Known about the structure:
Blueprint: H1 3-6, E1 9-10, H2 11-35, H3 45-69, H4 74-95, H5 100-134, H6 138-147, E2 150-151
Parallel strand pairs: 1-2
Helix pairs in contact: 3-4, 4-5
Amino acid sequence: MNRLSRLRLPRDPLLGALITVALLETAWIVFIAIRLPRHYIANHWDLAWVGLDVAQVLMVLLAAWAAWRRRALLIIFATSAATLMVLDAWFDVTTARGGDFDESLVLALVFEIPFAIGLLWVTRRTVKQLERSMLSDPELLHVAFHKIAFLPRPPRDEPEQPQL
C-alpha cells in the first residue's frame, strides 16, 4: 500500500456519523432547554472554571511553542485556544450576576473575543503560509490539500455470477 492510498478516507460513514450526532445533539438541546432549572447550585464550580482556564493556558503555550518551532500544529493549537477563549467569554457573561455581569462583559469584549479573533487570524495566516510553501512541490500540495480530503468509497468489485 503506497503512501497516497493510505490517505484515502471514506467520506460517507463520516458524513452519516456527523449528521446523526448533530441531530441527536439538537434533540438534546431542545430537551435540556425545557428541563433545566433557571437557577442551579453546582458542585466543583471552582474546579470547572480553573480547569477551563488551565486548558486555555495550555493551548496558548502550545500555540507559542508551535510558532517558535515553526510547526503547522500552530493551526490546531491557535484554533483550540480561540475556541476556548470564546467559550470562556460565553460562560463568564451568561453565568455572571449583579455587578459581575459588567466586569464579565467588559473582559469578554476587551480581551477574550479580540484575542480569539487574533488567534484565528494567526491560524488563517499559517494556513496561507503553508499553502504558499507547498506550491514549490505540486505533489506535496496535492497530497496536503486534496488526497487527505474525504473521498467517496471506491466501487466494490461485484462477485462473478456463475455461468449456467
